[in-house]
Design goal:
Elements (H helix, E strand, L loop, with lengths): L4 H19 L10 H20 L6 H32 L1
Helix pairs in contact: 1-2, 1-3, 2-3
GO molecular function: hemoglobin binding
InterPro entries: A_Hb_stabilising_prot, AHSP_sf
Keywords: Chaperone, Cytoplasm
């Protein structure tokens, strides 16, 4: 089942906005512990998913598929961000 265009647009917007949020983060000393940063990023991700879930259209199965795709994309961005953060911590 292909995603509806509205859901594709919402996913693209969510990805763009989440990426902007991650790119705005400034790593500084004293640093937040890695476990705390993981919690923060997971909270941000859940916030975005819950926000966009309410806007998804179509049958429930369509909405679920769109939310799953959004979750996968945000998770990918999160992993990359947390890798950069771990490298920052190692450099201290």
């Amino acid at each position: 089942m292909a995603l509806l265009q509205t859901n594709k647009d919402l996913i693209a917007t969510g990805i763009k906005e989440f990426n902007i949020l991650l790119n705005q983060q400034v790593f500084s000393d004293p640093a937040v512990p890695e476990e705390a940063m993981v919690t923060v990023v997971n909270d941000w991700m859940n916030f975005y998913i819950n926000y966009y879930r309410q806007q998804m259209v179509g049958e429930q199965q369509e909405q679920d598929k769109a939310v799953q795709e959004l979750r996968q994309e945000l998770d990918t961005l999160s992993v990359s961000f947390l890798d950069k953060y771990r490298n920052f911590l190692k450099s201290l």
